[in-house]
From TrEMBL:
<dbReference type="GO" id="GO:0005829">
    <property type="term" value="C:cytosol"/>
</dbReference>
<dbReference type="GO" id="GO:0030170">
    <property type="term" value="F:pyridoxal phosphate binding"/>
</dbReference>
<dbReference type="GO" id="GO:0047316">
    <property type="term" value="F:glutamine-phenylpyruvate transaminase activity"/>
</dbReference>
<dbReference type="GO" id="GO:0070189">
    <property type="term" value="P:kynurenine metabolic process"/>
</dbReference>
<keyword id="KW-0808">Transferase</keyword>
<dbReference type="InterPro" id="IPR004839">
    <property type="entry name" value="Aminotransferase_I/II_large"/>
</dbReference>
<comment type="pathway">
    <text>Amino-acid degradation; L-kynurenine degradation; kynurenate from L-kynurenine: step 1/2.</text>
</comment>
<dbReference type="InterPro" id="IPR015422">
    <property type="entry name" value="PyrdxlP-dep_Trfase_small"/>
</dbReference>
<protein>
    <recommendedName>
        <fullName>Kynurenine--oxoglutarate transaminase 1</fullName>
        <ecNumber>2.6.1.64</ecNumber>
        <ecNumber>2.6.1.7</ecNumber>
        <ecNumber>4.4.1.13</ecNumber>
    </recommendedName>
</protein>
<keyword id="KW-0032">Aminotransferase</keyword>
<dbReference type="GO" id="GO:0016212">
    <property type="term" value="F:kynurenine-oxoglutarate transaminase activity"/>
</dbReference>
<dbReference type="GO" id="GO:0005739">
    <property type="term" value="C:mitochondrion"/>
</dbReference>
<dbReference type="GO" id="GO:0047804">
    <property type="term" value="F:cysteine-S-conjugate beta-lyase activity"/>
</dbReference>
<feature type="domain" description="Aminotransferase class I/classII large">
    <location>
        <begin position="48"/>
        <end position="428"/>
    </location>
</feature>
<dbReference type="InterPro" id="IPR015424">
    <property type="entry name" value="PyrdxlP-dep_Trfase"/>
</dbReference>
<dbReference type="Pfam" id="PF00155">
    <property type="entry name" value="Aminotran_1_2"/>
</dbReference>
<dbReference type="InterPro" id="IPR051326">
    <property type="entry name" value="Kynurenine-oxoglutarate_AT"/>
</dbReference>
């Protein structure tokens, strides 16, 4: 055969030119930018303390690490090979057993549960499986940022409805429960074009845990307009102050139209393992399986085995003080309180979260610290977060990143901190804040 080099010798010069046809598929238009890529890089370059991206810097529980080690070095060498495409059998079985308890209904592990590469892929499967060109999908703002590009890539149109913050109570700290939907506004977003609503409770970035009454309102509208509910519940165990997480799939009329999404990353503090799942009726999950088998097909077997063992342990200890699902929120609640104190002391008004490992704080008092940017349409919180990491070494995420383009400037006085961190990390953050406070108050 002639070499590739030799063969170009015979090409007419015009045929050797670079490709000129459009490369990017049209469905990617407008989805190129990603807030995490930008802020993770800034944090890596400048931060001394990183409370930006949401992941714990403390170790996962020993029982889970040991389960992974056993999966890798034990006798069953088949754990190094492919397993069932829609979920490793021990994992779908234990998830079905667990969710039977939580949802109060019988579940078939093979048809009512599907394992995914993190909750992220579960979301992707939902949008690809259900959203048609021209369909509308209601997204409650602020929202986990990938919902919007994923809806658009599927050909759908996102329709946004904001949680509105109640007026501050004099001198008292606010709670994430003070972010509320206006029922009339929410109802006005439903139409015969609406295919689905995305619900995220407990909510990232606010830490809001939707009350039963709020969920009943959403459920009522879903049933009335025959709409699907994609329920992202990755923070289901991270709920504080004795509050209860209600699963919308357990409400009347909702099982049949809801896909519930979970994540081992959040459940067991192992975000790097990327094991997630979906739970729902077969008539919905069958379409998720189609997307899954034609894209990712399969998730890492050993990680699934370890997560299965983690759930087996948790099922035995369910509701007891030794359960990780009891211990983790307890520890996080203390970290939350520590962080609230640190922020309150420097005048960044924290809004106390009822769940998740995030809290947002009001930075409107800090406007004089950040240089003006005349002519820029970048929201204040984004400029603030960049300034803070560069000048103070503290990384956080602007809340406006969790709003659609048109609404970013309506909510630009808040930044989000992740408090799933070692006490030493939180103390280092407190030291930065205290020093900053001294600098601001000294004449
Ligand atoms: N949904 C929400 C609300 C999240 O916060 C995250 C992770 N930050 C995900 C989904 C993705 O989870 P995973 O890491 O399991 O893909």
């Amino acid at each position: 055969l002639p070499s590739a080099k030799a063969s170009t010798h015979f090409l007419h010069p015009s045929l050797q030119a670079k490709m000129s046809r459009p490369l990017q598929a049209r469905r990617l238009e407008g989805t190129e930018k990603n807030i995490w890529v930008e802020f993770v890089k800034l944090a890596a370059t400048y931060s001394k303390v990183n409370l930006g991206q949401g992941f714990p810097d403390f170790p996962p529980p020993d029982f889970l690490k040991e389960a992974f080690v056993r999966a890798l070095s034990g006798e069953n060498h088949m754990l190094h090979q492919y397993t069932r495409a829609f979920g490793h059998p021990p994992l779908v079985k234990i998830l079905a057993q667990f969710f039977e308890k939580l949802l109060g209904r019988d579940l078939d592990p093979m048809t009512n549960v599907m394992v995914t590469v993190g909750a992220y892929q579960a979301l992707f499967c939902c949008f690809q499986a259900f959203v048609e060109e021209g369909d509308e999908v209601i997204i409650i703002e602020p929202f986990f940022d990938c919902y919007e590009p994923m809806v658009k890539m599927a050909g759908g149109t996102p329709v946004f409805v904001p949680l509105r913050l109640k007026d501050p109570k004099d001198g008292k700290l606010m709670s994430s429960a003070d972010w509320q939907l206006d029922p009339t506004e929410l109802a006005s977003k439903f139409s015969d074009r609406t295919k689905a609503i995305v619900l995220n409770s407990p909510n990232n970035p606010l830490g809001k845990v939707f009350s039963r009454a709020e969920l009943e309102l959403i459920a009522h509208l879903c049933v009335k307009h025959d709409v699907l509910c994609i329920s992202d519940e990755v923070y289901e165990w991270l709920v504080f102050d004795g509050k209860e997480h209600t699963r919308i799939a357990s409400l009347q009329g909702m099982w049949d139209r809801t896909v519930t999404i979970g994540s081992a990353g959040k459940t067991f503090s192992v975000t790097g393992w990327k094991v997630g799942w979906t739970v729902g009726p077969n008539r919905l999950l069958q379409h998720l399986r189609t997307v899954h088998q034609n894209s990712v097909y399969h998730c890492a077997t050993a990680a699934q085995e370890a997560v299965a063992q983690g759930f087996q342990r948790e099922l035995q200890l369910y509701g007891t003080p030794d359960s990780y699902f009891i211990q983790l929120p307890k520890e996080l609640q203390q970290k939350r309180d520590q962080m609230v104190q640190s922020l309150d002391a420097v005048g960044m008004k924290p809004i106390i979260p009822e769940g998740t490992y995030f809290l947002v704080a009001d930075i409107s008092e800090f406007k004089s610290d950040v240089p003006d940017a005349p002519g820029s349409d970048e929201p204040y919180d984004s400029r603030f977060a960049k300034w803070m990491v560069k000048n103070k070494g503290l990384a956080a995420i602007p809340l406006s990143a969790f709003y659609c383009g048109a609404h970013k400037n309506n909510y630009s006085n808040f930044i989000r901190f992740c408090f799933a961190k070692e006490d030493s990390t939180l103390k280092a953050a407190n030291d930065i804040l205290q020093k900053w406070k001294r600098e601001r108050t000294s004449p």
